[in-house]
């Protein structure tokens, strides 16, 4: 038996307990998933869901109660459990919503809204343009039942891709396709490079379902942190020669993924290996990645369809290929998801687990996302389900991620008036994992309809990627200036100079004062060209903005900044590199007349550092 629990906590309440709970949490790491729809206040002035319809009594005995106090009497609670328990016998899946405090009549009150949501879902499944921003259909449900695809060409695409995934995986596992220079004579490792929707699904499936000794072991590069990438490559060591590198990117142009690819390709070159003989791309046709893979003649390419969103792509080649290579029965996963989809089409809410979940979310969060959802997997192998759900819910329902903590048994939670939902599967196997994924995908879709938002478009994602392009260009210009200074300095002294001054840096790089640094902290997007010269003190003059400073910080991979006080309008910002000790400051940046230090990218703390004059340093 394996359970996962969704618990609802009001943000402020949970926040105060965060540090305590953070310390206690270990393997059963919860994820906090806001279910707030975008563009709505998090704290509602007035509850939408809790308006008890005329003639209905809230659960609490007190007529003045908000009906938020869950049922406490054990017999009533038992009756509630018996009344509401949803069971899917073929899937061995149980959904218990009895500890959500909705009153009698709530489901009836919501029925017309839910019926509209179900009808919209039906249209979506029939091929409606559910993502109007991009003029796209939304078809992840067809992936597990191609006969539902709105036309035969889409159906064939799905079936052909599934067949080719299975065929390729079999050939790799049986060593019919092998790496050119591996002493093992076959592929033994997978290195998957991708981020967000192109990483979390495959990671979850691997953690949940991979056998102890899979035919190929999988590793992931899912961030642009150079240390993390180096670590993965170092761990592979000589096995790089028998590693299948799968690069996953729907758009084919995500900078983080590209950085990972460039670093891995460099490792292949350094080891005298030919990357193209071991590289596989999963991406949309004609994307940058697709074209690169085609021109460089990589080992294989698999399509990602424009009608599948990244966060719901785990049943496409994105999730299926890595899973099949680990010996996971992907057809069973698809069967599980398809059976769950069938259940989720039922119009009687009590018989429809996704509708039940969506309505409970609606109730628990007042229909305006007034609480955060905490997901606690009670089974280690489902640990990553919470991370997977974070992205699914966060990107679909569009609120920033909030981290908080609550832990305890269900009854402890309940006695503290925490509402919760428990999903239980009899066994964690491909079928039940497929079903879990399908359950939440649909619940998110239905909930989005209930709160009147579109779960399928992604405003901000493309804008974010564009902004990333701008910052990369700016970083290059800053880097050129820093490197120029390094060359000049290197001519005059044998060891790296301790202090450096940069005049007119903003003019030199044509820095736009309004530029908003879209990333925080130490994103390092220029792995290939890292600035390796590290002066002790770096002066920027004239006054530079904190956005510019943050770019310098990212180039130097610094992890935090401190600020001197109390000199008004005069700041020394200490940038400290994570891998040096406190007394070995890598660089500090002197900003004169800097703007107010309230930039959200950094945390500041007073640091008693004497502000030296330039002459005393030289
Ligand atoms: O698959 P890609 O196009 O490389 O995108 C990977 C990921 O990029 C960002 O993180 C987006 O927020 C995600 O929605 C997306 O899944």
From TrEMBL:
Q: Where is the composition biased (Polar residues)?
A: 58-68
Give TM regions. Answer: none
Gene3D superfamilies linked: Glucose-6-phosphate isomerase like protein, domain 1 (3.40.50.10490)
This protein's record includes keyword Isomerase: yes
Q: In which pathway does it act?
A: Carbohydrate degradation; glycolysis; D-glyceraldehyde 3-phosphate and glycerone phosphate from D-glucose: step 2/4
Quote the InterPro entries the UniProt record gives: G6P_Isomerase, Phosphoglucose_isomerase_CS, SIS_dom_sf, SIS_PGI_1, SIS_PGI_2
Q: Where is this region: Disordered?
A: 46-70
Specify the domain of life of the species encoding this protein.
Answer: Eukaryota
Instruction: Give the catalysed reaction(s), semicolon-separated.
Output: alpha-D-glucose 6-phosphate = beta-D-fructose 6-phosphate
Q: Which UniProt keywords apply?
A: Gluconeogenesis, Glycolysis, Isomerase
EC identifiers of the protein:
5.3.1.9
Which protein family is named in the record?
Belongs to the GPI family.
Q: Which PANTHER family match?
A: GLUCOSE-6-PHOSPHATE ISOMERASE
Instruction: Output this protein's name.
Output: Glucose-6-phosphate isomerase
Q: Give the organism the record lists.
A: Platanthera guangdongensis
Q: What is the lineage of its organism?
A: Eukaryota, Viridiplantae, Streptophyta, Embryophyta, Tracheophyta
């Amino acid at each position: 038996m394996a359970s996962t629990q969704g618990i609802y906590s009001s943000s402020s309440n949970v926040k105060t307990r965060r540090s305590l709970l953070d310390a206690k949490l270990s393997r059963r790491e919860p994820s906090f998933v806001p279910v707030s729809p975008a563009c709505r206040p998090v704290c509602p002035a007035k509850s939408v869901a809790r308006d008890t319809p005329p003639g209905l009594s809230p659960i609490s005995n007190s007529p003045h109660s908000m009906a938020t106090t869950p049922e406490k009497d054990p017999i009533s609670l038992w009756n509630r459990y018996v009344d509401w328990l949803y069971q899917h016998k073929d899937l061995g899946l149980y959904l218990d919503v009895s500890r959500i405090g909705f009153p009698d009549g709530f489901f009836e009150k919501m029925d017309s809204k839910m019926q509209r949501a179900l009808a919209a879902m039906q249209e979506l499944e029939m091929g409606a343009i559910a993502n109007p921003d991009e003029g796209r259909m939304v078809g992840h449900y067809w992936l597990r039942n191609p006969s539902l695809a709105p036309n035969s060409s889409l159906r064939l695409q799905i079936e052909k891709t599934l067949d080719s995934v299975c065929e390729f995986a079999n050939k790799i596992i049986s060593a019919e396709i092998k790496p050119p220079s591996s002493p093992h004579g076959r592929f033994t490792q997978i290195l998957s490079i991708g981020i967000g929707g192109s990483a979390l699904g495959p990671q979850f499936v691997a953690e949940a379902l991979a056998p102890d000794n899979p035919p190929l072991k999988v590793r992931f590069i899912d961030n642009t942190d150079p240390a993390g990438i180096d670590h993965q490559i170092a761990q592979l060591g000589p096995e790089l020669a028998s590693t299948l590198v799968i690069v996953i990117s729907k758009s084919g142009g995500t900078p983080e993924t590209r950085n990972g690819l460039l670093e891995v390709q460099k490792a292949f070159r350094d080891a005298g290996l030919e990357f193209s003989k071991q590289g596989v791309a999963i991406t949309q046709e004609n994307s940058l990645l697709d074209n690169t893979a085609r021109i460089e003649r990589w080992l294989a390419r698999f399509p990602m369809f424009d009608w599948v969103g990244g966060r719901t792509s785990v049943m496409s080649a994105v999730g299926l290929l890595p899973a099949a290579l680990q010996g996971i029965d992907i057809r069973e996963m698809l069967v599980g998801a398809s059976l769950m989809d069938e259940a989720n089409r039922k119009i009687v809410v009590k018989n429809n687990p996704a509708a039940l979940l969506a309505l409970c979310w609606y109730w628990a969060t007042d229909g305006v996302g007034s609480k955060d959802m905490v997901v606690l997997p009670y089974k280690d192998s489902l640990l990553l389900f919470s991370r997977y759900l974070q992205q699914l819910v966060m990107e679909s329902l569009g609120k920033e991620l909030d981290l908080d903590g609550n832990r305890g048994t269900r009854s402890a939670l309940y006695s503290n008036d925490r509402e919760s939902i428990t999903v239980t599967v009899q066994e964690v196997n491909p079928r039940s994992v497929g079903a879990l994924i399908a359950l939440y995908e649909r619940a998110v879709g239905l909930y989005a309809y209930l709160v009147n938002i579109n779960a399928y478009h992604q405003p901000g994602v493309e804008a974010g990627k564009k902004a990333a392009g701008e910052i990369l260009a700016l970083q290059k210009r800053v880097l050129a200036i820093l490197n120029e200074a390094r060359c000049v300095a290197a001519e005059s002294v044998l060891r790296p100079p301790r202090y450096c001054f940069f005049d007119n840096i903003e003019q030199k790089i044509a820095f736009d004062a309004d530029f908003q640094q879209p990333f925080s902290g130490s994103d390092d997007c220029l792995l290939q060209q890292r600035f390796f010269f590290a002066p002790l003190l770096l002066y920027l003059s004239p006054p530079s903005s904190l956005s510019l400073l943050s770019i310098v910080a990212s180039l130097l991979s610094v992890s935090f900044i401190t600020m001197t006080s109390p000199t008004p309008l005069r700041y020394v910002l200490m940038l400290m590199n994570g891998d040096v000790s406190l007394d070995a400051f890598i660089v500090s940046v002197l900003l004169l007349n800097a703007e107010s230090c309230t930039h959200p990218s950094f945390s500041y703390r007073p640091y008693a550092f004497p502000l030296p004059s330039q002459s005393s340093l030289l």
